[in-house]
Amino acid sequence: MGESQSSAAETITVAHDRGEYQVTVGSGLLESEPLAAALRGRRVFVVSSEPIRSLHGRRLHHVLSQANSVEWMMVPDGEAAKNLDTASQLWNRMLKLGGKRDSVVLAFGGGSVGDLAGFVAATFLRGIDFVQVPTTLLAQVDASVGGKVAVDLPLGKNTVGAFHQPQLVVADVDLLTTLSQRDLVSGLVESFKMGVILDASLAGAIETRLAELLKADPNALIQVVAHSIRTKAAVVERDAFESGERMLLNFGHTLGHAIEVCLEYGGLRHGEAVAHGILFAVELSRLRGLSEGDAARIERGVKALPLPPLPSLDVDALLDACSRDKKATEGSLTWVLCPGIGRGLTVNDFSHAEIRSALERFLC
Ligand SMILES: NC(=O)c1ccc[n+]([C@@H]2O[C@H](COP(=O)([O-])OP(=O)(O)OC[C@H]3O[C@@H](n4cnc5c(N)ncnc54)[C@H](O)[C@@H]3O)[C@@H](O)[C@H]2O)c1
Ligand SMILES: [Zn+2]
């Protein structure tokens, strides 16, 4: 991973098995040359949803005016877009409109748009380029980097997908000024998760600058977005295909994804579900030696965020959804634990009975 820094923007280079790509973080980046260069003279398919296009679509005017052709492909807003029906509509539309192997998909939205657009780019004509312009904090700190792209099935989150690296990621914090408080918090959860499991100084930065972050202060956001991306990039460079260390990024996600499935992908934002998943992972970590001081600090960090309460959910339904988690192997579930702030580990030796009783205590 390489870095270059100026007061206006930071560029992080992420290496992967077929080359590398750059992630730029800063303000006023949507008119910048790297984005224009990635689209210039090409057939561009912009995947977005109506609310995002109407809020920020004009910001792309300058770079899109340099493309050979531009098609806006609007998808349902939020998680509702992440399914095979929508993917199929996009594949058909791109083919009809003359999409070729040198066409490029531009993902202009949050993590839902990015995951869907990346999946469509990964599979259309066996893979075409895609560029990520993430418009939510969650997508900037996490989803847009690392090349995991997917859609959901009714029974399982992100269960059909691929690894497909973006050609470029442009994380412009100017886009975040219109985010709802819930979406801002949802992104902070993923970033705090990364700090807790990988880098105590990132967790500390979020704790220290929380008031500014909750007001979408651009300087605080640039610091946390860049720090999160550096942290994630280092992990995905070492373990692109999630065979080991990258699994740590799923801290809070085994239960978090199960909550989303049980709520049929509605009711809670992804980051909100993960926040509850983190609190449960802290309980499991306590059983395996996480100190009371660190456990309380993680809980304080999560509870300092304005989060909706966990709706009442059935233990059996949650356990059933957990059993379809992608990290599960035959016979056991994998849990990501935190043995101390800044460190993570995976375990798969909790018995079904231990998990059930921990979950029953957690839910009451
Ligand atoms: N691929 C990965 O590595 C990875 C990592 C983390 C999360 N994810 C996925 O990301 C998804 C969640 O992403 P998300 O939290 O960005 O949610 P989202 O994409 O569903 O967007 C949430 C809401 O934010 C709105 N929005 C987007 N940009 C906006 C802006 N600039 N101003 C105002 N509103 C805006 C959208 O219209 C939407 O209603 C989940 O599906 C999750 O599984 C993927
Ligand atoms: Zn997540």
Q: Secondary-structure blueprint of this entry?
A:
Layout: E1 2-5, E2 9-16, E3 19-26, H1 33-39, E4 43-48, H2 50-56, H3 61-64, E5 69-74, H4 84-96, E6 104-109, H5 111-123, E7 129-134, H6 137-143, E8 148-153, E9 156-163, E10 168-172, H7 181-198, H8 200-208, H9 210-214, H10 218-238, H11 253-262, H12 270-287, H13 292-303, H14 315-323, E11 335-340, E12 343-347, H15 352-363
Parallel strand pairs: 3-10, 4-5, 4-6, 6-7, 7-10
Antiparallel strand pairs: 1-2, 2-3, 8-9, 11-12
Helix pairs in contact: 4-5, 5-6, 6-7, 6-10, 7-8, 7-10, 7-12, 11-12, 11-14, 12-13
Total helical elements: 15
Write the H/E string, N to C. EEEHEHHEHEHEHEEEHHHHHHHHEEH
Query: Mind telling me which CATH architecture of the largest domain this is?
Result: 3-Layer(aba) Sandwich
CATH classification, class level of the largest domain: Alpha Beta
The main sheet comes to: 8 strands, mixed
* Rg on CA atoms, Å: 20 Å
E-strand count = 12
Q: What small molecules are bound in this structure?
A: nicotinamide-adenine-dinucleotide, zinc ion
Share in helix: 40-55%
